[in-house]
Amino acid sequence: MEPAFGEVNQLGGVFVNGRPLPNAIRLRIVELAQLGIRPCDISRQLRVSHGCVSKILARYNETGSILPGAIGGSKPRVTTPTVVKHIRTYKQRDPGIFAWEIRDRLLADGVCDKFNLPSVSSISRILRNKIGNLAQQSQYESGKQAPHPPPQPSLPYNHLYSYPASKMPNPPGMPTLPGHMAMHRIWPSSHSVTDILGIRSITEQQISDSPSFSSAKLEEWSAINRSNFPPASSSLVNGMDKAHLEPHEAKYTQTPSGLPTVNSYVTAPSIPPYHPPTQVSPYMGYSATTSAYVTGPTWQPASGNALSPHSCDLAAPLAFKSWVASRDAMHPVAASAL
DNA sequence: CTCGTAACGGTTGAT
DNA sequence: CTATCAACCGTTACG
């Protein structure tokens, strides 16, 4: 099922086969690239294969988004938005209508031809999943939307980080969290990285909030919805605006226990009071590191712990820079790590 | 040494 | 309810 722990790549990095890298890492990749770090260095430093770095960077350059593509599912083949709309209409007009009747009508009304006519089971599913209780509350909606229904009635392309409703802290209308995580090309010099980290921490924070969900939930980002058409659309650029970051950054100075938001993504959700900074999670200390960093004054900085600022974690921009400067020095460490 | 990319084994989710 | 299938994933290896 959910491999709590991933596999280890040639660079010593942890990954989960088939699954996207955590946003935190994706973010860091882009972030580092923007600081002028070469991809090969980013690869080594974050221990992510260069192929992946290359891909993420390329995608980012092209789309402005750091997010992975929508995984799984398939594009609607027959149940296009138009079809769904019609089904909805039929259902509204006659709530007792049977799926097979709808099917007949779709054909009769020319909405579908025999090649793209949804199966009865598909229609049932649509009624269940997309139409649902709509029969009652339909009024305003049916009233009118746009002449052009959005490609996907359900969700916007990338509404990222929409965590499961269960834990969605924010109101329905407007996701507090960015619809999708993309960034501006330029970062405010001084705290750009911190900001990013801040972002990470907020995203992650949500997860660590509810331990039981932790790892599983993270997946949501990508789960988002796969029902989007051409990705490229309009809105995928930026989504993460700093506005969210700065405040949060301050806010999440640290997790309740004083324990950094360590148990992260794929990490065993159940890693309890274990602790810190050394590599705990498959994706290594970075989360810890970061939060440590974000934590600021309250939390003891890297000082004593096993986590070497130079080893592999990007503790802070500065640490990073020094790392860059002295990466020879760091090699041995990396080597030993292996 | 870098970096782009195809092959590969994997997961996911709509049909 | 299960299987299929096409989308995406990151790593690896090659060029």
Automatic annotation (TrEMBL):
It comes from the Eukaryota. The keyword Transcription regulation applies. SMART domains: PAX (SM00351). Gene3D superfamilies: Winged helix-like DNA-binding domain superfamily/Winged helix DNA-binding domain. CDD domains: PAX (cd00131). Pfam families: PAX. Residues 4-130 form the Paired domain. It is found in: Nucleus. Residues 138-163 are annotated as: Disordered. Keywords: Developmental protein, DNA-binding, Nucleus, Paired box, Transcription, Transcription regulation. PANTHER family: PAIRED BOX PROTEIN PAX-6-RELATED-RELATED (PTHR45636), PAIRED BOX PROTEIN PAX-9 (PTHR45636:SF13). This is Paired box protein Pax-9.
